[in-house]
Amino acid sequence: MSGDKKNSKQKETLIKVLRYIKPYRFMMTLTIVMAVISVVLTLYLPILTGDAVDWLIYIADPSVLNVDSPWPALFAILRKMGIVILLTALSQWVMNICNNKIVYNVIQDIRKKAFRRLEELPLKYLDAHSHGDIVSRVVADVDQFADGLLIGFTQLFTGVVTILVTLGFMLSENVGITLVVVVITPVSLFVASFIARKTYSMFKLQSETRGEQTALINEMIGNQKVVQSFNREKKTLERFDEINGRLEKYSLRAIFFSSLTNPCTRFVNSLVYTGVGLTGALSVLRGGLSVGQLTCFLSYANQYTKPFNEISGVITELQNALACAARIFELIEEEPQVPDREDAVILGNVAGKVELTDVSFSYVPDRKLIEGLNLHVRPGQRIAIVGPTGCGKTTIINLLMRFYDVDSGIISVDGNRIQNITRKSLRTSYGMVLQDTWLKRGTIRENIIVGRPEASEEEVIAAAKASHAHSFIRRLPDGYDTLIGEDGGSLSGGQKQLLCITRVMLSLPPMLILDEATSSIDTRTEIKIQKAFAVMMEGRTSFIVAHRLSTIQNADVILVMKDGHIIEQGNHRELLEKKGFYAELYNSQFAIA
Questions:
Q1: Is 345's pLDDT higher than 70?
Q2: Is the pLDDT at 193 greater than 60, yes or no?
């Protein structure tokens, strides 16, 4: 990325961050006020210290005293110092509370927006991006951003105010020494600018590689059985080591440039302190300053240079924070799925008439999948879809549910184009059981009632009995209240699929989609479930995707697909009589060796 583009990207990201901070401008104002109070009181303390030193010198040499007793004045100064210290501590405490509230409210807002956007994103985005990288953006990158923002608020405001107020105090005391400080100051600015230019791209690469590493770890944990069964541990470790090596390289570069901050700024601090010390000492010898005033100036020199050290460190942290924020905003600003039209139809009393007219669709523009597909389904028909892997069977399901929108053509339900129907009412009209099961962390009951949260205990048990899941649920330690982990925990593949079938049995929507719904279930149980499905499908439009042709022989219409086209259509007997592609598929499954 060129320098101009990088700077432009940083400015855009910073503007977006400020928009999130804007709702908390009252606390921001309070933070600035507290920072000013804290700095002014902190800088007033050296003046009191200098006065106290001068009084101590006078006490040591009574001949120069023109007062009866110096002690009341000295005690008065000490009392002032105590009050100033307490007020400084109080203002810093209030400032830190405000800073934390601003940062964690902003982070809460960003995470909420990011998670809402995840719910709104089309499936094509989630299919095209690593899940681990998405998780890394929402979790790790937001945490890194929070750390940088907190350090920025805590030290940046205080640092800038300290520099400005210190210069004001020093100018009021002695212009000559102040000019020495101002002349040396650009060195610190140069150091900060140099570090800022170098670290942003390093931290961005570090953040991206961390997301890649999270994606690999997430993928391997979820598929460890497959990795071990194919003895891919060594290859996986090599891949992890390669990513880890890149992360090490980018991290070291980022840390190297950011670690230059402290020694470089300390060097500048020493120059400023030396300049003030030498100039001040000469001024004391000429009688232009008292020893107490010199003490005050040396204290100011430390106070003045310290913020440059902190600000340089803050700039480094902000580079990291902005790099992470840029990745978060990329997710938040992704195009959401096309929203429902304002006049969208809410389906009710669905009959189940489904039509596909000249439908064309492809996941990748240059790779055709479905072209000119036509299908007319009457209410209550059972439509089976068969064909070789990759012919577009599951894609039709994705289009019917509007997980993807067609490239061209029309899909309608009960005469309404699905683009004119609300997604919620469309998807509520379908009951869906997939080959890939999904169960959330929670009780068995909570997983069953996903589609009907208001269902009674009797209805849940009746649905479980219909799906033949009741017997194994009853044997679990706490029955329907048994807590299961993410994606079903220790349940077998068949048990998880039975729970997903129970979920649909409980909802009983007007249309059904069964995509290899019994692929993980033993043959004996499958026969019983097929009978339950037959009862459930009675009067309901049903789409059945199957590889085992024995499960779809009773379908009203069987669609035989190949390369995105329907090449044969009819019932089981008619297709066998044609002796075409379906007959070949059927005979290949039931041929006698």
A1: yes
A2: yes
Residue 375 Cα distances to 209, 271, 390, 411, 543, angstroms: 46, 83, 19, 9, 12
Can you give the CATH number for the domain in which 396 is found?
A: 3.40.50.300
Same domain? For 432 and 559 the reply is yes
Give yes or no: residues 295 and 386 share one domain. no
Q: How confident is the model at residue 57 (pLDDT cuts 50, 70, 90)?
A: low
For residues 491 and 577, membership in a common domain is answered with yes
Q: 356 lies in a domain?
A: no
Q: What is the extent of the structural domain holding 189?
A: 13-332
Residue 86: per-residue pLDDT = 92
DSSP helix/strand/coil, 503: helix
Into how many domains does the chain fold? 2
CATH (domain of 116):
1.20.1560.10
On whether residue 251 sits in a domain, the answer given is: yes
Same domain? For 432 and 541 the reply is yes
281-304 mean pLDDT: 72
Residue reference for tokens 């840390």: 255
Q: What is the pLDDT of residue 4?
A: 60
Judge contact between 438 and 422, C-beta under 8 A: no
Please give the pLDDT value at position 262.
66
User: Rounded to the nearest 5°, which phi and psi values hold at 173?
Assistant: -95, -50
Which residues sit opposite 432 in a β-bridge?
513
Q: What is the mean pLDDT of residues 198-221?
A: 78
Q: How far apart are the first and last CA of the chain?
A: 64
Q: What is the pLDDT of residues 560-585, one digit of tens each?
A: 888 778 888 888 888 888 888 888 88
Residue 316, token pair as written in the block: 């480094």
- Residues 298 and 388 both lie in one domain: no
Give 209-213's long-range contacts (Cβ < 8 A, gap of 24+): 209/243, 209/246, 209/247, 209/250, 210/136, 210/140, 210/247, 211/130, 211/132, 211/133, 211/136, 211/137, 211/140, 211/141, 211/327, 212/130, 212/132, 212/133, 212/243, 213/240, 213/243, 213/244, 213/247
